Amino acid sequence: MTRPEIEGSIRTLEQAAAWLESLINVEKRPELSYTRFSLAPIEALLETLGHPERGLSILHVAGSKGKGSVALFAEAVLRAAGRRTGTFTSPHLERWTERFRIDGREVEDAALADAVGRVRPHAEALRAHGAGIGPTFFDATTAAALLLFREAGVDHVVLEVGLGGRLDSTNAVEPAVTCITSIEYEHTDRLGHTLAEIAAEKAGILKPRIPAVIGELPDEAQRVVETRAAALDVPLIRLGKELRVERLGGDLAGSRIRITEGARAVETQLAVLGAHQAANAALAAACARRLLAEGLAPEAIDEVVRVGLAGTLLPGRVEVLSREPWILVDAAHTAVSARALAEILRSIGRPVDLVLSISAGKDMESILSALLPCARSVTLTRAEATRSAAPDAIAAAVRVRAPELALRVVPNPHLALRAAHEALAPDGLLCATGSVYLAGIARQVLRERIPAERVAVTRQPG
Prior knowledge:
The chain is built from 15 helices and 17 strands. The protein is an alpha/beta fold. The chain folds into two domains: about 5-310, Mur-like, catalytic domain (UDP-N-acetylmuramoyl-L-alanine:D-glutamate ligase), CATH 3.40.1190.10; about 320-455, Protein-Tyrosine Phosphatase, Chain A (Alpha-Beta Complex), CATH 3.90.190.20. The strands form three sheets. An eight-stranded mixed beta sheet has the order 4-3-2-5-1-6-7-8, with helices on both faces. A six-stranded mixed beta sheet has the order 12-13-17-14-15-16, sandwiched between helices. A three-stranded antiparallel beta sheet has the order 9-10-11. It is globular.
């Protein structure tokens, strides 16, 4: 975006987008050292805006994977209880406006443009007069979200961490509940090269005496989180200990699960694929239970958990676009999520044609180890010009692991998806995966190519 495009006040969504893209976008600038960033710019920005974060009942969600799913599950449960919600997630699938949701729907264009317009002069003043790095794209969008949520008078806010936790823009808030979904090797160039280092970054969202719900973590990571929690006197609710979930059954339509915490047990049907989503649903239920404890009896909370979880659909997360033939989109970008996807692909029992893009800094070897044994062919592409690994580098790794696998490199993701769809046999399964960026592009490209009568029944949550 050029500077003339964003001169003057912001009146439209296009002008808001132009100004936001002019900021340092950490998501798209991997060469910028993570250690250069701090909470100082977002804290200063929120102060100049009158602290829109204060007084909000906030669920703050971090994790290597699953945090977006937990955020949407929690939003659905809170809404089932009749509570008004504001939800801020990242990255987006198709439109940057998806990041801002009130009551389960994207914020209206005019309201979002107005919020960004009010953030802009404060952010630019800080950039002009402050020492060091000024507010980033994520600082500005976080601030705009909090402004919107305060002015909408929502009852609860669900904030998804963008990167890490300790230095993430969302960590400038005082939450009512925190959640760490999982810890794996990811963003090692920024978060650290050991699970303990990564866990320390995620555990940076824990706040003194504020309850935290955590998933089943590797021992090395668990020790770091528990040590940090003990130092801050944080009550922990741990999946597999204080909180349990059982998968009672499942098929290609979803799963039946039972969530147990203390004396409370709730059974419900999830309308999403994947055994791993049972854990995400349980974490979301435990978080929502704490937000709803004031005002609802335990029995009433049980019912809204059941109803809310059952009604949740998760765009871009093992999302079935078509069953004739099978077309599936998944944002799997870690080793564990890739293994979960591979299990689903095997259960469908069709020859699998992969379209794959992997973001830089991810555990490429583990992702390939999980997915390649499922594949009949693989098309490698680059979903995001600066954040995605070079397709030729992925191709070299694929050839080492699966030299006989049919392989092609199509750097343009739109062309890659179209070519893979054109080559899809009636008995095949096309799966686009490896990153959120590719999942978003795939939803756009592939839905346009599926006849209306063959589109699977899907919708945005809410």
